[in-house]
Amino acid sequence: MRNLFLLILAGLVVFSQMLVTRGHGTAAAGPAVVYWVTDPNPARQEQISLFREWLKNRHEADVEVRVDAVNSGGNKVVVQGVSGIAGDMMDLGGAAIHRFQPMGILQDLGPVFAAAGLPAIGTFPALADELTVDGRVWATPCNVWVQLFIVNNAAFSSVGMAPPPARWTFETFERLGKEFTTKANAGRKRREVFFASKIDGVTLARSIGIPKYNETLTLPWADTNAIASLNRMIHKWTYVDHLVPSDAEKASLSVEQGYGESEFQLMHRGYYAMVYSGRHALIQLRKMQPAIPLTAVESPHGGFPNVFISARSLAMYAGGRNQAKAGRFFAFLRSEEYSMHLVRDADGMPPNLDVLDRPEMLSPAGHTNEWDLHRAFVKLTRDAAIAQEISPFHVGGNLRMKAMQAYMSGVGTAEGAAHDVYDGTVEEIEKYTGRTPERKRAYLAALAVQKKIDALKARGEKIPIDWIANPFLRAYYQAKGMTTAAVAGR
């Protein structure tokens, strides 16, 4: 017992010394030190070098940014954040901002950008709901994820077909998919070539007016019959039409071709005509020879075309010791120099909208095979991008993925999968909103607004736009002429 006590004491001493060293990192000679909690991607060092060059060109004091890859990850950020020892800047993706902000560990970035003379959002307007909570900005994008089908034009020309149109319906997707897979697999002993690597259930559902949550994000969408119908269509495309591979077929194809889980290598070799991914796919595809002609198209739609957009964003730690210096890195992420770095490296979409029409973005030298792809990403993002739905009243697992896996493997039914998602989401919301009186009050207030919305819908009347917290339904209802101007108060 004594040895155990001494071991624990020694550990605490070492840990406290680490904190002292870290806390006084800016007191030593040399530039101020800012810690960036992020992944160990080699691109981070290049971005840090660009940042320091950006400061130098602006005649500003140098800032040393150190990557802290060991402490990245949601659970570590939470523990260190509430303990007062988190890094100055933290990479957060999508809904994570809405999870961490109520804990009080994130810094409001409005004053940071105001001091730099920059707009509060300063990127794609569709991302506003993802980056803000209660009207204040808590993060800014490092890069933007926009998901489209990346198309291997050569795969289509090899069977005498033109690439699919940029915008297409469910019916066109199925017709062209059947034609392609029939021709591409002719003469093979078994089916090896697929129309697409996968399909995105979120964009398909949105295209027929099915969101994840209701207007106030208080409950899951209740139309389980429509969701079950969509589930059956996805099942048909997978197991009847074989337009996309099942999990078993995907694993078999990957193993046989020796590429593990690389969908991009399989597409390059012609086993997938399309891969559903972001512009970052080019990082790998550019390493493969010969270069293949590429374009990008939307997910098929059932009446309402839409494109998924999200971001890998950076947040500032509220307890950081070098917030002023860290703020300069946030300003750098908004700069032309940083976005042009992403343009050149094809690491997602650049957050700075001013660079989208540059020749380097639309027609990069040395990559003529990509020109159609870049132009499609820019156009379709501008035309149809809608952010994900993030409910402040729901923290839980991916119920839809689990339910669909059960249905697709033959364990459940289409209707059962739809009901499992609805019932499971309701249960998780009830648990989460019941944890604190403040959260419960906010939830009840939102439910009161929902009751008024439901009454308007029942009478066939339009809904005040400011009553709709769901970003998808805001866009969908506006497109359908179902909204009115904002109303003061609720």
Please provide a written account of the structure.
- The chain has 490 residues and is α/β, with parallel strands linked by helices.
- The protein has 2 domains: 16-144 and 310-378, Periplasmic binding protein-like II (D-Maltodextrin-Binding Protein, domain 2); 146-309, 3-Layer(aba) Sandwich (D-Maltodextrin-Binding Protein, domain 2).
- Helix content is 47%, strand content 13%.
- It is built from 21 helices and 13 strands.
- Strands 1, 2, 3, 6, 7, 8, 9, 10 and 11 form a 9-stranded mixed β-sheet that branches. Strands 4-5 form a two-stranded antiparallel sheet.
- α10 (224-240) crosses α19.
- The longest helix is centred in the N-terminal third of the chain and has 22 residues, at 2-23.
Put the structure in a nutshell.
With 490 residues, the protein is α/β, with parallel strands linked by helices. Helices cover 47% and strands 13% of the residues. The protein is built from 21 helices and 13 strands.
Give the CATH H-level superfamily of the largest domain.
Periplasmic binding protein-like II
Poorly predicted regions are 1-27
For this structure, the CATH topology of the largest domain is D-Maltodextrin-Binding Protein, domain 2
Terminus-to-terminus distance: 62 Å
The radius of gyration computed from the alpha-carbon positions, rounded to a whole number of angstroms, is 25 Å
Helical run tally? 21
- The strand count comes to 13
CATH class of the largest domain: Alpha Beta
